[in-house]
Amino acid sequence: MKSCLKLTFDNGQTALATQVEQQAELANALVEIGLGGSRPVLVVVGGASNISEADFLRIQRLFVEVLAPIAETLGAYVVDGGTDVGIMRMMGKARIQIGAKFALVGVTPESKVALPNHSETAADLTPLEPNHTHFVLVPGKNWGDESPWISHVATVLANGAPSVTVLLNGGEITFKDALSSVNTGRLVIVIAGSGRTADILADALRGKATDERAKKLAKSGTLQYIDLSDIEKGVENLGKVIKGLLSNEE
Q1: Which residues form the LSDAT prokaryote domain (predicted)?
Q2: Region label for 96, one of left (φ > 0), alpha (ψ between -120 and 50) or beta (otherwise)
Q3: What is the pLDDT of residues 51-98, one digit of tens each?
Q4: In the chain, what are the domains?
Q5: The whole model's pTM is what?
């Protein structure tokens, strides 16, 4: 394990970051940046590409009206990929918009991101999302190398408490994210109607799969979907399901 860092973003927000090389280091590394104990964990994976403005706004509603408020109410940890794009940006903005205090933890390959207030920032690096509270910088040369780390961080943070993964939209890496959750036995809630990988997986759950990866994941028994085509019903259903799972309510 390397040093812990305090990051200061241009918007004035600060975050604590830890650099880890091996999964065995995670528990101590997380405690050092104030993430200990046992709490419910919400994992958010996917993307927000190739969607219309209307669909973007519908997905954004899920963050502002469901995911962020539930995390705040339950005092949950939220774990995602941490970069300033797509659903990770939505999560960060939703947290600020509702004035929440829950810990928002980004897990990302250190070699692929630009750290604020670090002079070695390169043009080809992706910025971190500035409204996250914590970052776990992990080894890896390619996007997708962080997928098993995201799942493992969630398991360590939960420490026996309930956890669930919500999957929206997404591309190729989202299949890896889903598999990583499935491999740890974590339920994955697929948001049908959010596009791309989410819709491929939802079709597989409906028995309409053509993608072999989706078929395999659907057979795992750890995926279910909620339809976003009716936004009002989708928001209500997702809220009930996520809150119930994370609070151990039937």
Answers
A1: 39-232
A2: alpha
A3: 778 888 888 999 999 999 999 999 999 999 999 999 999 999 999 999
A4: 4-246 (3.40.50.450)
A5: 0.95
**Residue 217 neighbours by CB distance under 10 Å:** 23
Distance CA 88, CA 17 (A): 17
Query: What pLDDT, in 10s, does the model give residues 15-62?
Result: 999 999 999 999 999 999 999 999 999 999 999 877 778 888 888 999
Residue whose structure tokens are 């976003």: 228
Q: What is the DSSP string of 84-152?
A: SSHHHHHHHHHHHHTT----EEEEEEGGGEEPTT-TT--TTSEEBPTT-SEEEEE--SSTTTTHHHHHH
